[in-house]
Amino acid sequence: MRNPKLNRWLLGSALGFSAAAASAQATDETSFLPFMAPHLEAARYSSANADFAWVGWIGATADLFQSGRGSLYFNPGVETILGNRVRSFEAVQANYSLELGMRFKVGRGRVSPFFHHVSRHVQDRDKFQAVDWNFLGVKYDSPWPEKWNRRGAFAASAGIATLASAVGYNWEARISGDIDLVRKGDRALFLLADARYVDADASPEFPRDQITDLRAEAGFRRWAETSQFALFVAYERRSDALIPSALVSRRALFGFRIRAQRGSSPAIRPLP
Fold first, then answer.
1. Which helix (DSSP H) or strand (DSSP E) does residue 74 occupy?
2. Quick check: 199 and 223 in contact, CB under 8 A?
3. Residue (of 143, 93, 138) closest to 118 by Cα position
4. pLDDT one-digit tens code per residue, 57-113
5. Which helix (H) or strand (E) holds 17?
6. Distance between CA atoms of residues 154 and 68, nearest Å
7. What is the pLDDT of residues 179-238, one digit of tens each?
8. Which of 227, 51, 183 is nearest to 122 (CA)?
9. Are 257 and 59 in contact (CB under 8 A)?
């Protein structure tokens, strides 16, 4: 069941954080589209089957407007899961993600109220049930302490569902971080961890009242001023992996990532 008191508390917290951050911003510099860049990730599942063989993610990040230490951003993306139901290489799922929000610099970190939409689609099949959701929430991200001399960042977020078709999501909380363990110049060996909890209403197609998504990753990456290239090995626990019904998928991934970023934030992508 949805909890109105909890939803009001989360919404009030998001608005409170936003107001406090906005009041601290200077407005001495204003610019339009100060930063735009693509994201790209691709990986092979292990073990692989007809529904889960490869996964690709392509998207972008754009700061639409900046004034002082605050900015308005837009992050669109699409995840495509490939399998071999009919052909040896075909799209099975397409999951669209859109996020619009504001970022406010607070100390070394950023406070970001956001609106996040996800829409999921089975490829080459008739669609009888809409599967999509919206989350309204707030996130804080920051680089690690300067004295550590380690690239990477950590983030924590919480949000309430304003729409949840079929999946019955109520609210979510997420925490993540990545860090360079061994570093030489612009190259490093890194670790990444990402955990997400979602409270949900059970249904015949989705007989669970909560989900937990996990990802642990290790790899090599090379940094540039506003981007990074990474080769990684990961373990992923993914809930509601199938679109029309519940399935918990536990698989390894072997892949690469090209990620642009303006400021320090963990190298994670939205979980559909």
1. strand 70-83
2. no
3. 93
4. 999 999 999 998 899 999 999 999 999 877 778 899 999 999 999 999 999 999 999
5. helix 4-23
6. 23
7. 999 999 999 999 999 999 999 999 999 999 999 999 999 999 999 888 899 999 999 999
8. 51
9. no
Take residue 229 and report the two structure tokens written for it: 């290239």
User: Is the residue at 205 inside a domain?
Assistant: yes
Q: 69 lies in which domain range?
A: 4-260
Write out pLDDT tens, residues 223-243. 988 889 999 999 999 999 988
Q: What pLDDT, on the 0 to 100 scale, is given for residue 26? A: 45
What does the pLDDT look like over 111-122, one tens digit per residue?
999 999 999 998
Question: Residue 165 corresponds to which amino acid?
Answer: S
Provide the CATH number for the domain around residue 175: 2.40.160.40
pLDDT the model gives residue 89: 80
Question: Quick check: 213 and 239 in contact, CB under 8 A?
Answer: yes
Q: Copy the structure tokens of residue 21.
A: 């951050």
Q: Is residue 267 part of a domain?
A: no
DSSP H or E stretch at residue 12: helix 4-23
Q: Does the residue 265 lie in any domain? A: no
Tell me how far apart the alpha carbons of residues 175 and 19 are, in angstroms, rounded to a whole number. 23
What does pTM read for this prediction?
A: 0.85
Report if residue 270 sits inside a domain: no
Distance from C-alpha of 241 to C-alpha of 222, rounded to nearest angstrom:
31
Residue type, 148: W
Three-class secondary structure of residue 13 per DSSP: helix
Domain count within the chain: 1
